[in-house]
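input
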Amino acid sequence: MDLIGLQHTLDNSAFAVLLVTMLLYWAGAAFPQIPYLKSLGTAGMVSANLAIACLLGARWLEAGYFPLSNLYESLFFLAWGITAMHLLAENMMRSPLVGVFTAPLAMGITAFAALTLPPEMQQAEPLVPALKSNWLMMHVSIMMISYATLMVGAMLAIAFLIWTKGEAITLHGSSYGGGSDRDNVGDRLRELSAQSLNLEPTPSQGGTATATLPAVTTTTLSPQRLNIAATLDNLSYRIIGLGFPLLTIGIIAGAVWANEAWGSYWSWDPKETWALITWLVFAAYLHARITKGWQGRKPAILAASGFVVVWICYLGVNLLGKGLHSYGWFF
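output
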């Protein structure tokens, strides 16, 4: 089998494996009493990650340059990064809930690349002169890994918002070790129980405290659900904390490359502008978590908005208008 045929086999295999993996994770969440579903889901993610790595390797051998020059290649590199970050997050959380959200994301990306893009957009083409640089590997690969990492962190924030929808929840403890949220479940439950009732003195009874229902009643999370919510919140913070410095390094590397190629470190190109917006959104998230001590739904909403901003930066600006970064089918 030639390298081109191998690539088509690998991209379709990656899609098929991720589709089955997604169903396994969903089944594992629906039927947690079946223990081997999580293990099968993890094995599927590992298999998809290896298949995509082999696809990118074959592409590298065929084209003779690092496979990040067009939309097809960057989509599969993004999917590879997401599966890698998924395995890291799942190892930290040890719950199939991570795969419920990350597997559909990776599967959707591979389906779009392998099944939707026309054949001419999937072919490797010679690099344009501006991309014939070692900065292609350094800048673009770091940016794509940062996108994948931030997307996984944002997806965990979205999972937290869905998991705690309509619930009154207060989280305490350091997000970076020392005071793990999972160690304070009992304290948080007592706080939630106290918050579920308003104790007010009744003048007619000489100031005797009576329990009155609050204006808005909310249900209290069970200890197990509260534990999962705290872990999702903590893990989202940790993953975004990993992706943010990668994004920063990628932007700096891009500025150095831009100065070499165009004679200017910053040109306010649409891609550069949205990379800065992405950086500011996640900087605001981390600032709120570290400096303001925010935890729970407020920062999760900010992280969830970052998921949309990353997609605009990665793909949207290239579809909406042309700029200095419009090479080889949008990239």
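quick obs: The first strand starts at residue 198 and ends at 202.
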